[in-house]
Structures are given as C-alpha cells and as structure tokens.
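Quick one: structure for this chain?
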Amino acid sequence: MRWEDARRSDNIEDRRGEDYADAGGGGGGPMMGGAGHLGIGTMIVLGVIAYALGIDPRILIGGAEMFNNVRGGGQTTEERAPQQQVTRQTGAPSDQIGQFVAAIVGMNEDVWSEVLPKQKNIKFTPAPLVMFSGGTRSACGSAESAMGPFYCPLDKKIYLDTSFFQDMQRRFGGGGDFAYAYVISHEMGHHIENLLGILPKVQRAQQQAGRAEANALSVRVELMADCLAGVWAANANAKWRNIDQGDIEKAVATAQAIGDDRLQKASQGRVVPDSFTHGSSAQRVQWLQRGMQSGQVDSCNTFSR
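Got it. Here's what it folds into:
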C-alpha cells in the first residue's frame, strides 16, 4: 500500500510516553478478570481488535464492547480522584509510525467526507485518534494495550496502542501497511455507524436483550465495520490507485485469522457461536470483500441479512 504522499490528519492526539497515572489510569483502575466466555480468567485474545467475550452492552458497543468485560464485568470506574490537566501533543507526529497513522486517518477523512454526504446525505465529522503506549483513559473507561484498538462512542475517539501492529505480526503472522490500515479503518467504520445513528439503536436494543441476542447484535455491528473498512478501501483506491492485489490478500488473511471461531478454537479448544461478538472468519472475509467490491455504504447493511 502506498501512503507516503497522503495528507496527514491533524486529528491525532499523541499520548505515547505519558505516565499512565497522569493519563488518568493508575489508582482506582480496572480490576482484571470478568465473566468472559473464554473461561481463562484474564485471557485476552489479540486480533484486529482484542476480544474478551461476555460483554456488558450498555457501556460499550462496536470495537470496545470487549473492553468493559476486561475491566471487571461491566463495573464503571467513575469514582476517581480529580485528574490534573495534561497538555498533550496534537497533530501528525514526526516519527514513522505516527506519520503512517496520521496518513491513514487523513485518507479516511478525505474519503468519508466525500462518500458519506454523497451516498447517505450525512455530513462527515472526524473522529480523533488517540495514540498511546501501555494505557490511558477514554470516556468509556481505562484503555490498555492488551485490549487492542477500539472506538469509544462516548467521546467519539479511536484509541490505538501501535504496539498492536507488532502483535499482529508476531501472533498471527499478519502485518503489512494495508492490514494495519484495515485495523484503523475498521474502527473508523464504527464512527461511521455512530454518525448513521446505528450504534445508539443497537445499544438500546441490547439493553432489552439477553446475552446471546446482545452478542448477535454486536456481531452485526462488527461485520458492518468490516464492510465499511472495505468501502473506504474501494473508494481510496479509486481516488489514489494506492492498493494492489497483494495488499488485499493480506487484509483478507488478517480477517480470516481473527474470526471468533478461529480465536476461540485456538484459546479454548472449542467454538461457542452464541458467544461470538465479532463474527466468524468466513463472515469477516465476506463482509470485508463486499465493501471492497461495491464501494457502497448501503451494501453493508448487516441488519437486513
């Protein structure tokens, strides 16, 4: 994937190098544990986004639903000492990984600012991306590197510890610029879902649902984000001709590697479909490819299929 000539987004908040306590973590932070279906206590499976099954859908949906389980089965952590104000660097970082992230966010902004009004008559508003190392705070609670990237619908920001890219390579044999771009664009896909009004509707439905039904709704949200990442890729390639077949093959391989079925089989030796929150390997590939082939937001309606 060629990204070097892309516009760098200024909607980057660089918290790397911050002390976690200064960032709002530390005392009063999350208790590791929860009621995950994996049955391995604090086991966190890394993928395009990290999983911990058994979500509390009232707090987090989309890429972040696993995160509340890791924090202790849905308990909030609002009772904290007042945090001192921290001056943070915003704008495109100067290091290579920061430049890459800013370029991918910039390309997402450029595509969606055209596609969303044209196809859905909705104005695109950017979702800032927070880069951090180790841990930080979001409006959805504590963010830690083991959780993987996620979108917080409460502050409308994407959270990313870029060490996750190394985990992709080491643990899944994945990697490559387009695979990394897919990770970011999947989370941007959740932001698009939020702008379309889908996330609030799903959240309300999950509040009234049992666990299996809530998980099934989460799967639809995640598959739609996969498809929207494909829509972004299709339109980006039409605009800049910067994605080749090898890039697409790597993204498809990544989608296959992080299906719920494959991750559950690897972690616990069995597959529990009712506990899926992101979709099977075949589903993730299917919806990513649907978005790449169509380039149309309406092709991503996972709720009608």
